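Researcher: Re-running this chain for the archive, since the previous output was lost when a drive failed. Same request as before.
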Amino acid sequence: MTGSANHHKSQTLAIEPSGSSGLADRKASGTRTGQGRQRASRNATKHGVFSKVVVLNGESRAEYQRLLAGPWEALQPEGALEELFVDKLATISWRQRRLLLAESAEIRKNMEFVESDQRDQERETAERVWSMSALLGGRGLIGNTNNGHVLERCLQLLAILRKRIEEVGFKPDQDAPILRKLYGDRDASRLRTDFYDTYETLLQVAQTPEEELKRKGYRSLSEWRQIMLEKIDVEVRRIKRDHKARVSVETARTQLEIMSRNVPDGSALDRLLRYEASLERAFDRTLSQLERLQRMRLGQPVLPKLEVRHSLS
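Model: Regenerated structure tokens:
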């Protein structure tokens, strides 16, 4: 620093007590003029002894030099030892910046792949459901239409069934495999009726001879066929509606899962917190050493060194 000896003795270093981990809140004890700031910036660039090793590939050396200029302007070091301590404060701050980036990366890693993992799981589930639906006694695909891949296949099968009935009418030997694939085998363990039951009911009527239908005053075969087509359309709308409701629930669950990962998992969080604590201790210790040096140089009283020891017992 420059100036008279009296000025040196009367000047007080505005440095906060140990426990603070940043430089931005510390009051500058050096010059506030534009010329002084430029000089501090040049000094920081010239004396950044740790910059060659602390700045990793992919990090900005220019950003590090800008960060280094702040402590130089605020603390105005004189002599090689003070300059070394100021450089060290900057490297600790740079590591704290890197720590925040690492924490952000951990959070993004956990958050951004939730939906991707769910899509992969959905595809695997769809393949498993499709293969199991062929087993005897399977409940069919319809019970799994919350899965988008299964839903798409169900709609395709219903479209095939509709087109066939529209063109050639009821063909039980060809229709049954599709219906079993969709709704499972017919057995007494089913909890409720489904579209397969509707088909079988209409099939019985459709297999009645046309003359008998007329004699009993029933609709014609073409009318029953049209009713079947309408029932298929109703079933398609029901499936899509149920799927939409389930997707809404799954979307909400996914968002909650993403929010729950806003903090790194246990092992990563513990590692980051321990590193942060070590940086804070190093920062406070270095700042305290620099303050003692500057007080001695200025002829000010030097506070006794405070040592804190941690015991695990």
